[in-house]
Amino acid sequence: MAFKSNLADEILHRADIVEVISNYIPVTKKGRNYVAICPFHDDKNPSLHISKDKQIYKCFACGAGGNAISFVQNYEKISFGDALKKVADLIGFDDERLKQYQHLNKIDHTLVPLYNCLEDLTKYYQYCLLTEEGKEAKNYLDQRGLAGDIEQTFRLGYALNNGEASIEFLQKRGHSIKTIEAIGIMGGELNQPFDRNRGRVMFPIADRDGKIVGFSGRILQKRKDVGKYVNSPETPVFKKSQILYNFDRAKTTARHDGYVYILEGFMDVFALYRAGINSAVALMGTALTKEHIAMLRSLNAELRICLDGDLAGQMGMLKIAKELSNSGLSYSFVDSSNEQRDPDEILTQDGKEALLKYLDKRISHSVFAMQYYRLHGKAETTNDRRRLVVEMLPIIDTITNQEELMDGLLILKSLTNFPLESLKKSLDLYRKRSNKTIPSFREVHPERELIRHFSFAERDVIIYMLHDKRAATYYEANINYLYDDIYRSIANFLIDYYDNHEAIDVAELINTIASNDTEGVQDIIEEVSSLSLRNDLPAYSDKSMDELRLTIEAERNKEMKERDLLEQTKGKSDAEKAAIYAQYYRKNKDDNLPVLDKERKPN
């Protein structure tokens, strides 16, 4: 039926477009009007302008525009009538005329049989859970704490071992073999089909509107030829890139709660539900996609990312951060650096309060990234360390708090062994780039700052060792470690070589190095070739080596102080950190640590 304009007009007069749009995307006040990242194109800057006076919106980048009703209609891709009803729901407007409207959604009628078949199959699985054969599945759910409320709320079920039974039931309900095949459950041949989910506890998966689109099934009896879990394949209605488990329920609570947890699987969703948290969704083993981000944006809630504490889960969180970095969404990470268990395990082993405490300990993207690289980052060669700096620059640039910025630089220094001064200069280089693109690998050389500090001393030690065996003896007795990994490797090769020779034959030494499987062999050979040609130092003396040793030790002491500083500030408040830093600066004025930009404003 057509809608009378006075009903739509009445709703528009009662609605505030800013509040309506704020239910879907973050909105920022700018002068008399408001701005937002436009959801109708790949927007990086706030291009969507919202006029509170005129009650309209307009994107000056892609041209999208309209009023509160058309925004909801275009955002949710629904009919005018359904958008009208949604706006009425958002503002608490109730009218009998709304109950009489006819759904005008653009429905793909070819998909209706699939939805109906999936709904009937879900009911059948629920029934099978109550049969004699379903008792084992029922016991499993009970042992996992999933019986009762969760079983009913999430419509859990069981697929009988007789896989032909499901097919027969669906056919009796009027569903064709073609439809049954299209929903992704059919195995075997067309003349003797069976349900590929047979013998499994069934977990239905719904789309954003709550319609069942697929399943995940867990096997009860272990079998070598099948996996523990099997998920529905991609079908016309089941597309993993567009599915977040439990989104249909979480979307109503997340807007009220102001947050939503992003989890790894549906068992974690159940754990949070048992702990009293309804605003939670799961990725179901997929990466975060643009479609997922669009769905999450509509919640207008903080995203709290909580994947497993193992390496795979932490890598997944890091990838999510990269996807969200330009989204304009508010997000944080559950701190799982000291926790290898998933939420379901924490709840089972330690109880509800322990899980809630774990979920409530959250950290920023920058802190999470630093912790990740500190635990898992491999930066052994100079090039590895440079790549780490390049990757971390955009993350450190997001830090606006003075103490957190110092934390970030100190942690990055501890990971790379590059001086703080050079890391600050690399950050300045990134900040000066007008387009804020990441500098190329070749542009960032924090290791060059080392030369101005003590690499001259380390280099001279190697030159002496190449020309005089006494230098090698002195090194082994008094120094025995160089900061630069290439110089350190050369020194070790020289010590070994002098065990059998009185003088260095450079060509022979290079052959020895080349036959070794040490990482970075070519860099070592090139440096040996270069330094062996240098003979511009004063004649060898223990006094000269003493001076070089003192220079190296001074830098090593500075390094130890900075590592101690990092340990002292762990877990401290901003005020406590500021006091620790101030005390450190007073005691170590000659260390020339960088003065950070206190005038830097948040982006």
Main sheet makeup: 5 strands, antiparallel
Strand order of the largest sheet: 1-2-3-4-5
Strand runs, count: 16
- CATH C-level class of the largest domain is Alpha Beta
What does this protein structure show overall?
It is a single chain. With about 600 residues, this protein is of the alpha+beta class. It has 4 domains: about 5-100, Zinc finger, CHC2-typedomain (DNA Primase, Chain A), CATH 3.90.580; about 110-240, DNA primase, catalytic core, N-terminal domain (DNA primase DNAg catalytic core, N-terminal domain); about 245-365, Dna Topoisomerase Vi A Subunit, Chain: A, domain 2 (3-Layer(aba) Sandwich); about 455-555, DNAb Helicase, Chain A, CATH 1.10.860.10. The strands form 4 sheets. It has a 5-stranded antiparallel β-sheet with strand order 1-2-3-4-5, with helices on one face. The longest helix has 28 residues, at about 540-570.
